[in-house]
Amino acid sequence: MTSPLATLAQGMPDVLEQLGRIWAIIPDARLVGGAVRDLLRGQAVADIDLACPTPPDAVMAMLKAAGIKVVPTGLAHGTVTAVIDRRPFEITTLRRDEETDGRHATVAWTQDWREDAARRDFTINAMSCDSAGVVHDYFGGQADLAAGRVRFVGDARLRITEDALRILRFFRFQARYGRGQPDAQAIDAMTALAALIDRLSVERIWSELRRILTGPEVVRTLVQMQACGVLAHVLPEGCAIPRLGRLLACGAPDEPVLRLAALVAGDEREVARRLKLSRAEGGALARARGGPVPSPGLGGAAMLRLLADHAARDLIWRTWLRQADALGQPDAGWDALRRQLAHTQPPVFPLNGGDVMGAGCPPGAVVGQVLGQVRRWWLQEGCAPDHAACVARLRAVLAEGAARAT
C-alpha cells in the first residue's frame, strides 16, 4: 500500500509541511483514524486528525507557546484543534473508556497507543502513523483494508454495546471499503443487538442514514440492513427498497432526501417528524411525494403554469419518482423534460395587493379575493399577460363586481 506520508507529499505537500510544524512541537503525535486509512489507499483526505499521549491542557500550552492558534473544541474528550494557515488539525489525547452506556462514554487519559486503538470501531480505523511514516497497526487493519474486510476491533458485541451507532457505521463502511460478504461475526452481533438502535438520538441515525443513501452500493446495503433486522429500527414506517433501486437505475442524483422519498413506504410527515429532519429537508420530502407531476411532452404554457406555483426542484424530483414508478430505467424524454424545467424562467404574477387597492378596491379580505381571481385568469392565459394587461383585467373584475353589487 502507498505510504501515508508519501500520499501527502505527492498530493498535499502543504498539509505535510503544516504537520511538520505540529510534529516539531509534539514529536510523539501520530495521524489516526480515517486519515491513515484513506492515505494508505492513495487518496487525498479532507480532515487530518492526530492523537498523542500528552494531556490536552499541556498540548494547548505547547501549541500556544509556538505561536499556533489553538481552540479547545472538546476538552472533556481530550480534543483540541490546532489551526495552521486556516486549516484545522484535531489533536486528541490517548483515551480509554471508563464507562459507556451505548451512546456516550466517560474517558480517562492513557499513554498506551494500543489501549487507545482498542476503543475504536473497526480495524481499518484503528491504525496510526508517526512522523517517520511508520504505520502502527495493532489489529490487522492494513490486511483488512487490502482484502476489503470491515471488521470490528476485538469483540463485535462489545463494540456495539459501547455505541450502537456502530451498527449503521458498519454498513456504511462495508459499502465503501468492503468486498464480498460482510464479516459473519459482525452480522451475528448486529442481528442480536439491532434493538439498541432505538436508544440512539434520531439526529445521529439520520446523519448515518443520509451517508448510506448517498454512498455506493445503496440497494445492496439496505437489503443487508433489512436482513439483519436493522432497517426496521431505522425506518419503522416501512421501506420500499425496490422503488429506490428503480430510482437509482434511472440515474437520479445523489440527493439524500430524494432517495429517502423513494425509500419510505409510510407517511413521509411522520418520518420527517421522528427523524427530526430540518424544516428544509422535511418540506422537500413532503413536496417530492405530493403535488402535480409534469410529463414528457408538456407544452410551454402548461409548464409555465406549473412553475408559477411550484419550485423547479420540486417538480424535477417528482419526475424522478414518477419515472422510477413508470419505467425504472433511463429515458431521453424524461431527461429532456427535466432540462426544460431547470432552464425555464419561472413566471412571476405581476400584480400585488397595492395594485388592487390602487384600482379602487377598499382594504380587507376582498383584496385577496380579487387578486386571486385575476391570478387564475393570468394562469389560464399561460402566464403571458404583462402588468398592463393584468391591470386591465383587474379593472374589469372590479367593474363586474360593482355591477353585481347594484
TrEMBL record:
Needed cofactors: Mg(2+)
Keywords, alphabetical: Magnesium, Metal-binding, Nucleotide-binding, Nucleotidyltransferase, RNA-binding, Transferase, tRNA processing
Plastid as UniProt keyword: no
InterPro entries: Bact_CCA-adding_enz_type3_sf, NT_sf, PolA_pol_head_dom, PolyA_RNA-bd
One GO term of the biological process aspect: tRNA processing
Domain tRNA nucleotidyltransferase/poly(A) polymerase RNA and SrmB- binding: 185-238
Family matches, as CDD domains: NT_ClassII-CCAase (cd05398)
Any Pfam family: PolyA_pol
MF GO annotations: metal ion binding; nucleotide binding; nucleotidyltransferase activity; tRNA binding
Domain Poly A polymerase head residues, every copy: 29-151
Top-level taxon: Bacteria
Transport as UniProt keyword: no
PANTHER family found in the cross-reference section: CCA TRNA NUCLEOTIDYLTRANSFERASE 1, MITOCHONDRIAL
Family designation: Belongs to the tRNA nucleotidyltransferase/poly(A) polymerase family.
Name of protein: Poly(A) polymerase
Organism: Komagataeibacter nataicola
